[in-house]
Amino acid sequence: MSSIVLPRIIEIGGGTLSHLPSVLQNIGSKKPLIVTDHMMVKLGYLATLQSILRDAGIENDVYADTEPEPTAASIQAGIKKVQNEQFDAVIALGGGSSIDSAKAIAVIGKFGGTINEYRFPRQFNEQGLPIVAIPTTAGTGSECTRFTIITDEKTDEKLLCMGTSFMPVAAIIDYGLTISVPARTTADTGIDAMVHAIEAYVSRKANPYSDSQAIAAMRLIGPNLRRVYHDGNNKTARESMMLGSTLAGIAFSNASVALVHGMSRPIGAFFHVPHGLSNAMLLPAVTRFSLDAAKERYADCARALTFALPTDNDSVAGEKLLATLVDLNKELAVPTPQQFGIEKARFFAVLDIMAQQAEASGSPANNPRVPTAAEMVTIYKQLWNE
Ligand SMILES: [Fe+2]
Known about the structure:
alpha/beta; Alcohol_dehydrogenase_Fe
């Protein structure tokens, strides 16, 4: 049995940003709040979006102070704005951090409380302000997931919140918005999308629906990740990565992520490593740890990603997957924790608490091989020996 949750409307393709007024009309919104960040203002994306709304005669207001890796404090002013004024929808414009912020603002703005009260294992399914998500990275897949991640800055913990409340009612997947994303962010977010698809496929919560989305995502992402990193102007590659990222989001939202994400969030929270980068640091070691527990599944991933040949048997495909993930990190210039500037003594001082936080997130329990806290500590240590 599986329960599938999706946005009601998904507009896909270059130029679909212009469909925003009809999407808003479709969901009955006459006065949306745009939630975004300073980069979107600087790049002119907010101005473009507002001119589309102005031409359609749609009144709107803006909260542009969301931050990368959002914290409870960084969303507070947005929540206040929703509570003090009358909006009938939230438009989330930006990368995963903007969309995650918008989700929390749309839900807490309507139902009150603090983000801590919504954290896993609670499932929150009440309909908050409807969210129209417009991602500008290919990426987090947040536009099609029933999750948000907000950091509690008091404890340096990334809080995972889930439920249909956090699923956007509509998503506009316009790859044109990703053309100017710099190479580093392109790589980090692209790796994140690849990890979503792999983890959804090997997850203990995988189901035939999530499998179909995960495999389709891997077929799009595998051959195009290097291409977009080396040539951001390759429109075909950008288009494939954008759709792949959304399909990967649908896959993991309807299955789960697993050990990479479980262990990645604490690294992000303690050392402010961008999410996709901490995933990339962990992916080879976690895959090595998990491979034998789901050999056929990992082999399917290797073949779908085109890292192995369709004719390779499962053992060969698994080995090729491991080797390619290591090579990929080199080619995409993924730093080691040391190269990123993390102080080894500090990292080792928080190993146990990171393993505890990983376990508390619930994600490691979805892994094909469920680790003990001690095994997670061992994997964290391996990041320094490679
Ligand atoms: Fe992710």
